[in-house]
Amino acid sequence: MPATPQKCRSPRVPTRCAAQLMSESRFRPEHARRFAEAGLVVVPKLASAQRVRELREVAQTHLAAAVAPLEYEADLRYPGAPPARNAPGGATVRRLLQAYARDSVFRDWATGPEVAEPLHHILGPRVMLSQVHHNCVMTKQSRYSSETGWHQDIRYWSFERPELVSLWLALGREFPENGGLSFLPRSHAMEFAGDRLDDALFLRTGNPLNQALINTRLTPLLEPGDAVFFHCRTQHSAGSNSTAETKLSLVFSYHAADNQPLPGTRSASLPSVAV
Ligand SMILES: O=C(O)CCC(=O)C(=O)O
Predict the structure, then answer these.
(1) Domain extents for the chain?
(2) Which of 76, 182, 188, 274 has its CA 20 to 30 A from that of 217?
(3) pLDDT digits 0-9 by tens, 160-189
(4) Which DSSP state fits 22?
(5) CATH of the domain spanning 19-189+219-274
(6) How far apart are CA 79 and CA 66, in angstroms?
(7) C-beta 228 within 6 A of ligand 1
(8) What single DSSP character describes residue 72?
(9) pLDDT score recorded for residue 143
(10) Which pTM does this prediction carry?
Protein backbone atom coordinates (compact mmCIF):
# COMPACT_ATOMS: atom_id res chain seq x y z
CA MET A 1 0.00 0.00 0.00
CA PRO A 2 1.51 3.41 -0.93
CA ALA A 3 2.51 5.61 1.98
CA THR A 4 0.44 8.72 2.61
CA PRO A 5 2.30 12.06 2.35
CA GLN A 6 4.40 12.77 5.41
CA LYS A 7 2.79 15.24 7.77
CA CYS A 8 5.21 15.81 10.60
CA ARG A 9 7.71 18.43 11.49
CA SER A 10 9.65 19.95 14.30
CA PRO A 11 10.70 23.60 14.44
CA ARG A 12 13.69 22.88 16.65
CA VAL A 13 15.46 19.81 15.39
CA PRO A 14 15.32 17.70 12.24
CA THR A 15 12.54 15.20 12.72
CA ARG A 16 12.61 11.60 11.59
CA CYS A 17 9.10 11.59 10.21
CA ALA A 18 8.02 7.97 10.01
CA ALA A 19 5.45 7.64 7.25
CA GLN A 20 4.62 4.20 8.55
CA LEU A 21 3.20 5.85 11.68
CA MET A 22 0.65 7.77 9.62
CA SER A 23 -2.33 5.73 8.63
CA GLU A 24 -5.04 6.18 6.06
CA SER A 25 -8.52 7.20 7.04
CA ARG A 26 -9.65 4.00 8.86
CA PHE A 27 -8.04 1.92 11.54
CA ARG A 28 -6.91 -1.48 10.24
CA PRO A 29 -5.17 -4.43 11.88
CA GLU A 30 -1.80 -3.24 10.54
CA HIS A 31 -2.24 -0.03 12.51
CA ALA A 32 -2.35 -2.13 15.65
CA ARG A 33 0.96 -3.68 14.58
CA ARG A 34 2.42 -0.21 14.00
CA PHE A 35 1.17 0.83 17.40
CA ALA A 36 2.92 -2.20 18.93
CA GLU A 37 6.20 -1.29 17.18
CA ALA A 38 6.25 2.47 17.64
CA GLY A 39 4.10 3.00 20.73
CA LEU A 40 1.80 5.31 18.77
CA VAL A 41 -0.23 5.50 15.61
CA VAL A 42 -1.94 8.48 14.01
CA VAL A 43 -5.35 7.86 12.48
CA PRO A 44 -6.55 10.72 10.28
CA LYS A 45 -10.26 11.56 10.31
CA LEU A 46 -11.20 9.12 13.05
CA ALA A 47 -13.99 11.56 13.99
CA SER A 48 -16.33 13.04 11.39
CA ALA A 49 -16.60 16.81 10.90
CA GLN A 50 -20.06 16.75 12.46
CA ARG A 51 -18.78 14.84 15.53
CA VAL A 52 -15.91 17.31 15.94
CA ARG A 53 -18.33 20.25 15.72
CA GLU A 54 -20.52 18.79 18.50
CA LEU A 55 -17.59 17.96 20.77
CA ARG A 56 -15.94 21.32 20.19
CA GLU A 57 -19.13 23.25 20.85
CA VAL A 58 -19.65 21.62 24.26
CA ALA A 59 -15.97 22.03 25.13
CA GLN A 60 -16.01 25.73 24.23
CA THR A 61 -19.23 26.32 26.19
CA HIS A 62 -17.85 24.61 29.30
CA LEU A 63 -14.54 26.48 28.97
CA ALA A 64 -16.25 29.86 28.57
CA ALA A 65 -18.46 29.21 31.63
CA ALA A 66 -15.61 27.59 33.61
CA VAL A 67 -17.77 24.54 34.38
CA ALA A 68 -16.14 22.51 37.18
CA PRO A 69 -14.19 20.32 37.72
CA LEU A 70 -11.24 22.17 36.25
CA GLU A 71 -7.47 22.05 36.41
CA TYR A 72 -5.71 25.40 36.10
CA GLU A 73 -2.31 26.07 34.56
CA ALA A 74 -1.32 27.61 37.89
CA ASP A 75 -2.02 24.31 39.70
CA LEU A 76 0.82 22.51 37.93
CA ARG A 77 3.24 25.42 37.52
CA TYR A 78 4.92 23.89 34.52
CA PRO A 79 7.30 26.25 32.68
CA GLY A 80 5.34 29.25 31.39
CA ALA A 81 2.38 28.81 33.74
CA PRO A 82 1.21 31.58 36.08
CA PRO A 83 2.77 31.13 39.54
CA ALA A 84 -0.58 31.12 41.40
CA ARG A 85 -4.32 31.24 40.78
CA ASN A 86 -4.40 34.87 41.98
CA ALA A 87 -1.48 35.95 39.75
CA PRO A 88 -2.04 37.51 36.29
CA GLY A 89 -3.37 34.72 34.07
CA GLY A 90 -4.01 32.57 37.13
CA ALA A 91 -7.55 31.76 35.97
CA THR A 92 -6.24 30.09 32.79
CA VAL A 93 -7.80 26.64 32.55
CA ARG A 94 -5.54 23.76 31.54
CA ARG A 95 -8.05 20.88 31.52
CA LEU A 96 -11.81 20.36 31.71
CA LEU A 97 -11.76 17.32 33.98
CA GLN A 98 -14.19 14.38 34.11
CA ALA A 99 -15.19 14.67 30.47
CA TYR A 100 -17.06 11.35 30.57
CA ALA A 101 -19.46 12.63 33.24
CA ARG A 102 -19.79 16.12 31.70
CA ASP A 103 -21.95 15.53 28.67
CA SER A 104 -23.38 12.75 26.53
CA VAL A 105 -21.42 13.95 23.48
CA PHE A 106 -18.20 13.06 25.30
CA ARG A 107 -19.62 9.74 26.55
CA ASP A 108 -20.87 8.78 23.09
CA TRP A 109 -17.47 9.46 21.54
CA ALA A 110 -15.46 7.79 24.30
CA THR A 111 -17.37 4.50 24.02
CA GLY A 112 -18.62 4.66 20.43
CA PRO A 113 -17.75 2.38 17.50
CA GLU A 114 -15.06 4.61 15.93
CA VAL A 115 -13.11 4.29 19.18
CA ALA A 116 -14.06 0.77 20.22
CA GLU A 117 -12.96 -0.93 17.00
CA PRO A 118 -9.34 0.31 17.12
CA LEU A 119 -9.12 -0.31 20.86
CA HIS A 120 -10.27 -3.90 20.46
CA HIS A 121 -7.52 -4.42 17.88
CA ILE A 122 -4.93 -2.99 20.27
CA LEU A 123 -6.12 -4.12 23.71
CA GLY A 124 -8.27 -7.17 23.02
CA PRO A 125 -11.98 -7.96 23.22
CA ARG A 126 -12.76 -6.44 26.65
CA VAL A 127 -11.78 -2.79 26.89
CA MET A 128 -12.42 -0.40 29.79
CA LEU A 129 -12.27 3.40 29.92
CA SER A 130 -10.50 4.79 32.99
CA GLN A 131 -12.41 7.69 34.53
CA VAL A 132 -9.37 8.60 36.62
CA HIS A 133 -6.68 9.25 34.01
CA HIS A 134 -6.94 11.80 31.21
CA ASN A 135 -10.75 11.75 30.77
CA CYS A 136 -10.53 15.44 29.92
CA VAL A 137 -10.56 18.21 27.39
CA MET A 138 -6.98 19.42 27.25
CA THR A 139 -6.68 23.09 26.41
CA LYS A 140 -3.74 25.24 25.36
CA GLN A 141 -4.68 28.87 25.62
CA SER A 142 -2.93 31.61 23.74
CA ARG A 143 -1.58 33.33 26.83
CA TYR A 144 -0.21 31.66 29.95
CA SER A 145 -0.24 28.12 28.62
CA SER A 146 2.68 26.01 29.78
CA GLU A 147 5.25 23.57 28.43
CA THR A 148 5.05 19.91 29.39
CA GLY A 149 8.38 18.09 29.52
CA TRP A 150 9.12 14.61 28.17
CA HIS A 151 7.33 12.01 30.26
CA GLN A 152 5.57 8.66 30.29
CA ASP A 153 1.98 8.84 31.52
CA ILE A 154 2.31 5.57 33.44
CA ARG A 155 4.71 7.19 35.91
CA TYR A 156 1.84 8.08 38.24
CA TRP A 157 -0.64 5.37 37.24
CA SER A 158 -1.03 2.07 39.09
CA PHE A 159 -2.28 -0.96 37.17
CA GLU A 160 -1.44 -4.67 37.18
CA ARG A 161 0.44 -4.16 33.91
CA PRO A 162 1.77 -0.93 32.30
CA GLU A 163 -0.37 -1.50 29.22
CA LEU A 164 -2.81 1.37 28.80
CA VAL A 165 -3.65 3.26 25.64
CA SER A 166 -4.56 6.92 25.40
CA LEU A 167 -6.63 8.32 22.57
CA TRP A 168 -5.95 11.96 21.75
CA LEU A 169 -8.54 13.54 19.46
CA ALA A 170 -7.74 16.89 17.84
CA LEU A 171 -10.76 19.22 17.97
CA GLY A 172 -8.83 21.78 15.92
CA ARG A 173 -5.52 21.92 14.08
CA GLU A 174 -2.48 20.92 16.14
CA PHE A 175 1.10 21.85 15.29
CA PRO A 176 4.25 22.81 17.18
CA GLU A 177 3.43 26.51 17.52
CA ASN A 178 0.11 25.90 19.28
CA GLY A 179 1.51 23.25 21.59
CA GLY A 180 0.91 20.11 19.50
CA LEU A 181 2.21 16.91 21.07
CA SER A 182 5.60 15.42 20.18
CA PHE A 183 6.42 11.74 20.70
CA LEU A 184 9.54 9.58 20.90
CA PRO A 185 8.70 6.53 18.76
CA ARG A 186 9.61 3.16 20.31
CA SER A 187 10.29 4.69 23.73
CA HIS A 188 7.43 2.60 25.13
CA ALA A 189 9.75 -0.41 24.87
CA MET A 190 12.79 1.31 26.45
CA GLU A 191 13.98 1.40 30.04
CA PHE A 192 14.97 4.72 31.62
CA ALA A 193 17.49 4.44 34.42
CA GLY A 194 17.22 6.81 37.36
CA ASP A 195 19.82 9.36 36.27
CA ARG A 196 17.96 9.96 33.00
CA LEU A 197 14.93 11.24 34.94
CA ASP A 198 14.44 14.22 37.23
CA ASP A 199 12.62 14.14 40.56
CA ALA A 200 9.22 14.46 38.87
CA LEU A 201 10.19 11.67 36.43
CA PHE A 202 10.59 13.95 33.40
CA LEU A 203 13.45 13.11 31.02
CA ARG A 204 16.52 15.23 31.83
CA THR A 205 17.13 17.03 28.53
CA GLY A 206 20.82 17.61 29.35
CA ASN A 207 21.54 13.88 29.49
CA PRO A 208 23.38 12.84 26.27
CA LEU A 209 21.42 9.58 25.91
CA ASN A 210 18.16 11.47 26.31
CA GLN A 211 19.28 14.14 23.85
CA ALA A 212 20.00 11.54 21.17
CA LEU A 213 16.59 10.04 21.75
CA ILE A 214 14.84 13.42 21.71
CA ASN A 215 16.38 14.05 18.27
CA THR A 216 14.15 11.24 16.96
CA ARG A 217 11.01 13.11 17.97
CA LEU A 218 7.90 12.95 15.85
CA THR A 219 5.44 15.86 15.91
CA PRO A 220 2.29 14.89 14.03
CA LEU A 221 0.44 17.76 12.35
CA LEU A 222 -3.17 17.07 13.19
CA GLU A 223 -6.33 18.29 11.51
CA PRO A 224 -9.68 18.38 13.35
CA GLY A 225 -10.90 14.81 13.76
CA ASP A 226 -7.43 13.26 13.53
CA ALA A 227 -6.52 10.97 16.41
CA VAL A 228 -3.37 9.64 18.01
CA PHE A 229 -3.39 6.36 19.92
CA PHE A 230 -0.36 6.23 22.21
CA HIS A 231 0.99 3.78 24.76
CA CYS A 232 1.17 4.84 28.41
CA ARG A 233 4.98 4.26 28.28
CA THR A 234 5.56 6.37 25.17
CA GLN A 235 7.54 9.48 26.00
CA HIS A 236 5.79 12.65 24.87
CA SER A 237 5.96 16.41 25.43
CA ALA A 238 4.27 19.61 24.33
CA GLY A 239 5.21 23.28 24.05
CA SER A 240 3.12 26.29 24.93
CA ASN A 241 0.68 27.94 22.54
CA SER A 242 2.13 31.00 20.82
CA THR A 243 -0.84 31.49 18.46
CA ALA A 244 -3.97 33.56 19.12
CA GLU A 245 -6.37 30.61 19.18
CA THR A 246 -7.06 28.15 21.98
CA LYS A 247 -6.20 24.54 21.11
CA LEU A 248 -8.70 21.92 22.30
CA SER A 249 -8.10 18.16 22.39
CA LEU A 250 -10.23 15.40 23.87
CA VAL A 251 -8.27 12.68 25.67
CA PHE A 252 -9.34 9.34 27.15
CA SER A 253 -7.30 6.38 28.44
CA TYR A 254 -8.22 2.72 28.20
CA HIS A 255 -7.11 -0.59 29.67
CA ALA A 256 -7.98 -4.23 29.10
CA ALA A 257 -10.55 -5.67 31.52
CA ASP A 258 -7.93 -8.15 32.76
CA ASN A 259 -5.53 -5.31 33.63
CA GLN A 260 -7.14 -3.80 36.69
CA PRO A 261 -6.10 -0.71 38.68
CA LEU A 262 -4.32 -1.70 41.89
CA PRO A 263 -6.69 -1.62 44.89
CA GLY A 264 -6.29 1.40 47.14
CA THR A 265 -4.46 3.51 44.53
CA ARG A 266 -5.70 6.68 42.87
CA SER A 267 -6.10 4.69 39.63
CA ALA A 268 -8.81 2.66 41.40
CA SER A 269 -10.64 5.68 42.82
CA LEU A 270 -13.43 5.68 40.18
CA PRO A 271 -14.94 2.71 38.38
CA SER A 272 -13.83 2.06 34.81
CA VAL A 273 -16.47 1.90 32.09
CA ALA A 274 -16.86 -0.95 29.60
CA VAL A 275 -16.33 0.05 25.95
O1 LIG B 1 -0.58 19.17 26.19
C2 LIG B 1 0.29 19.08 27.06
O3 LIG B 1 0.87 20.04 27.53
C4 LIG B 1 0.70 17.74 27.57
C5 LIG B 1 -0.39 16.74 27.58
C6 LIG B 1 0.12 15.41 28.07
O7 LIG B 1 1.27 15.13 28.09
C8 LIG B 1 -0.82 14.43 28.54
O9 LIG B 1 -2.02 14.74 28.62
O10 LIG B 1 -0.38 13.31 28.84
Answers:
(1) 19-189+219-274
(2) 76
(3) 999 999 999 999 999 999 999 999 999 999
(4) B
(5) 2.60.120.620
(6) 23
(7) no
(8) E
(9) 86
(10) 0.90
